[in-house]
Amino acid sequence: MSSYLIRCPSCRTKNRIPEDKISLTPKCGKCGRPMNMDDIFTGKPVTVTDSNFETTVLKSPLSVLLDCWAPWCGPCQMIGPVMEELAGEWKGRIRIGKLNSDENPGISGQFQIRSIPTLLIFDNGQLKESIVGAFPKQHIIQKMAPYL
Ligand SMILES: [Zn+2]
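Above: inputs. Below: predicted complex with zinc ion.
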């Protein structure tokens, strides 16, 4: 049976949760607090903004792949559908976020995003890696392998 590695939102411990326990709101093995699974299994990219960045990315129960994009950017239009696909394929494993860099200058400035698309990889509240430019899906999958 497959299982999921989900970080407790309260104490940050990684819990391995069997697939059949996911729907039961499992409790963290370390601190005993219930872990809400509602927004982990949507299979869709999450819209990230300056105001929700902390809760959606830094405190995410999953590692996050954040697509920083803008509507006028041609190569971003190629990455967009790939992100949609990956959000479905990595449901419960990786959170896919989308940040409109024009509308969110705070985060764009903080992470010094100068060229888009830029993909940022976060794990446990820390930036691990940035991928600048529109790469093929296979390249993104390889980069994310350590976090799956
Ligand atoms: Zn905990």
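Residues 8, 10-11, 13, 28, 30-31, 33 surround zinc ion (CB under 6 Å).
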